Amino acid sequence: MTELSGIAGRQPVVDLRSDTVTKPTPAMRAAILDAEVGDDVYGEDPTVAALEAKVADLFGFEAALFVPTGVMANHIALRTLLRPGSELIADADAHILAHEDAGLAWHGGIQTRTTLTPEGLLSPDDVSRLIRPHSPHTLGTTAVELENTHNRGGGSVYSIEHLRAIREIADAHRISVHIDGARIWNAHVATGTPLREYGAVADTISVCLSKGLGAPVGSVALLAPERRAEAVLMRHRLGGGWRQAGILAAAGIYALDHHIARLAEDHANARLLAASLQSAGLSARAPQTNIVLVDVPDAPAVAARAAEQNVRVSAFGPALLRLVTHLDVTEKDCLLAAEVLARVA
Ligand SMILES: Cc1ncc(COP(=O)(O)O)c(C=O)c1O
Description:
The chain is an alpha/beta fold. The longest helix has 17 residues.
């Protein structure tokens, strides 16, 4: 909860629009202040190097690249797998399709083949059905993308067994697997699956430090070491060559050391929020992690009325709200938000 001083005086604001709205904690700011830095375009920032090594090690990868955003991490990782004019399988509601401004098509010439799935999760059967062979008549599939947790699916989680089954199909067809792991930390905490097990089923992974982990900026692309130089070039071409980025990497390292286990609190708060909304008669879906979806007749109108009462939520569709719990939201905030939403919905 933050205090806003406005016309109506100081009043609490509960911001559930996204887990990206968190502000760095004092301890994280201290880590930023102490960061040793250098020019990362020259490959001379020791804190960036330390962050990349740390994330690579967590997932059992040999190479990593620190980039400004999750969109760029997805883009660069996928471009190391797919040449222009190749085909990627993804669920129709994937972040790469719904919220990345056609970047894969625009910059990468990548075609996607999709299907709508429950909670955004592709089943092994979906993947088998969507794979096309390379032939004179069909382009053929090169890779499959899986979002874990799934944003539009309401923070839904792939079990490791499910991921392994898809990996087996991918291997049988010699196609690659990319995981959009912007919130893979939430999946890890919700299921207890070791991060290395996610690493073992993917050719590339993107992870975000700026969502549930509470860093101000930054994502990491995990990829094959022989493709890293190409990934660095691509980042530069996209305008993502950054200089003393160790300032930001220090926040990422702090977040990895201190903010993973506490995601369980966000999940508990999401369950509390959903239960409170349900008790008030609202149609909140049961959350698996830190995202609560609520079906309402007119989402933009409800979001606007809630904002007037200092509760910020996202209209995620004409009749769908998204509420996300995070580091800056308490149990009390969730109860307050549920009370306000029950009044204005
Ligand atoms: C699943 C998923 N992937 C990727 C991204 C992109 O991250 P960024 O906003 O840092 O570009 C987001 C952002 O919300 C996301 O939810």
